[in-house]
Amino acid sequence: MARSNTRNDFGCLVVDPDETVLDCNYGKQRTSGGSRSFRPETSDNYSLGVVLEPVEGLTITYDKWSIEKSDTIGLFGEENHIALDLLRRLSAGTSNCSAVTTNPAVIRDNDIPTDSLPLFAAAGLCPFGEVARVDDNYTNLDKRTVEGTDIGVFYDVETELGEFGFRYVGTFMDKYDQEAGGQAAELVAAQASGTLPASVPVVGFASLIGQNGNPERKDTVRASWSKGDWAVRMTGLRYGDFVQLLSNGQVFPIPEMTTFNLSVDYNFDMIGDIDSRIRFGMNNVQDERAPLADDSFGYFADQHRDLGHYYYVDLRFRLL
Amino acid sequence: MTTFSKRPLAASVASAMLISAASAPLFAQQEIDEIVVVGSQIRGAQISDALPVSIMNELDIEALGVNSGDELLEFMAEQGQNFFIESENISGGVNPARGDIGAFNLRNLGTGNTLVLLNGRRVVNSAAYQTESVGGSFVPVNTVNVQSIPVTGLRRTEVLREGASAIYGADAVAGVDSRLLVRSIPRT
């Protein structure tokens, strides 16, 4: 599949950072397709848990779990390919410009403006033209490790005051790591050692927990009471806090968000013996709005929902 | 007493429909080399059993007061971000506003890592937008559309909270979301 995207040419930006002679942000064709060197993705997981039933009606569950997925198939990305190309050219130096080892996935043309030649020499690079095409084929890449704890508390009891039910399920994430694999590992290492200029972005690796819609915890709760024809139910949902990493390098905190839904049911027989129920409900009782984030609609839409407070009346009956 | 000998699996499935428990053995003894189990149902699972499952029954689902599959999914603690489309402001819009599609993403491990079963069978995948950044570029992924399973009429939803790809294959790395519909309407 081929498509054209405008991308930064990091090699060009090293030669001419202020783009006085060269234009370093231009359209490049990207082709992507399969590969003969694919290995299957692999995953290892374990979970270990206990279930306690200390008294009648009460169940407590505690589970530790871990999922490790490696050789995840993905695209290395055009900018990463270009960064790798730069890395290869930097290590080749200027000693033999007729045989420079480059990243074969990055195909450059030979059109080099003569007034840019001194800039190439100053940067210690053999002259190169613009990127015509990047062959960005699917390949085995990163390793993701996710670990966490699940806690559940379930309690049901029947008393003279009616039936009470309580459920709590919470997930606590302890670890969310994305480790660079293959050529990405080479880039991460080169940037860490200073071989690759710090201005070349190599992001999305290391620990991603608590960042960009990846909160450390999520809690759900349900409580109910019923007696005779009446029932009251409450449910709650809480997303933990996390931070959003902005493109300018700032870390923007996004607080936790909790919403509650409430409903009251009355069951009755309509017109003789038609089994009927009327419900009055309120969703998002406290009118909680999604916390502010730097995103299209001002909130983190992949995680939060911005539906305000609303009421509804629901009538249900069974005819058969 | 009836005894069943080892027979080829296909033959036994066909014959099981024909013979009753009282009938005599009909087939000669034959060894089975290998049986490959490609999936097993977790139906009827209990929270107190060996498998770590989260269960919502009809009453629990009703208590939520939600109408869309998207909202129901949000109430599962194991669900991560509901990735469907990143271009919120151009053609996509946000999930609650658009309401047509939502993506399963247990453990936030990425769309396409959660297996979805309806009455014990795999549900057809929809093409999701390129939302998964693996490596340095976005990769197209598949997910079951959570909105294709109605909330009304759900008898139970079960989330198998551990990777089950050894049983189900590569799409169950993050776990399994199994949904069961009300099988019959009570008639009097």
What's this entry about, in short?
The complex is a heterodimer of chains A (320) and B (188). Chain A has 320 residues and is mostly beta strands.
What does this structure look like?
The complex is a heterodimer of chains A (320) and B (188). Helices cover 12% and strands 47% of the residues of chain A. Chain A has 320 residues and is mainly β. Chain A is elongated and about 95 Å long. The mean pLDDT of chain A is 88. Chain B has 188 residues and is an alpha+beta fold. Chain B starts with 8 loop residues before the first helix and ends in a 7-residue tail after the last strand. The model of chain B is unreliable at 1-24 (pLDDT under 50). The interface between A and B is large, with 70 and 51 residues.
Radius of gyration of chain B: 21 Å
The best one-word shape of chain B is globular
- Helix count of chain A equals 4
Number of distinct beta strands of chain B = 9
State the distance separating the first and last CA atoms of chain A.
56 Å
Uncertain ranges of chain B: 1-24
Assembly form of the protein: heterodimer
Shape of chain A: elongated
DSSP helix fraction of chain A: 10-25%
How far is the first residue's CA from the last residue's CA of chain B? 40 Å
Domains of chain B, number: 2
Order of helices and strands of chain A: EHEEEEHEHEEEEHEEEEEEEE
Helix fraction of chain B by DSSP (H/I, runs of at least 4): 10-25%
Kindly report the average pLDDT value of chain A. 88
- Which structural class best describes the helix and strand composition of chain A? mainly beta
Quote the beta fraction of chain A: over 45%
What is the H/E order of chain B?
Answer: HEHHHHEEEEEEEHE
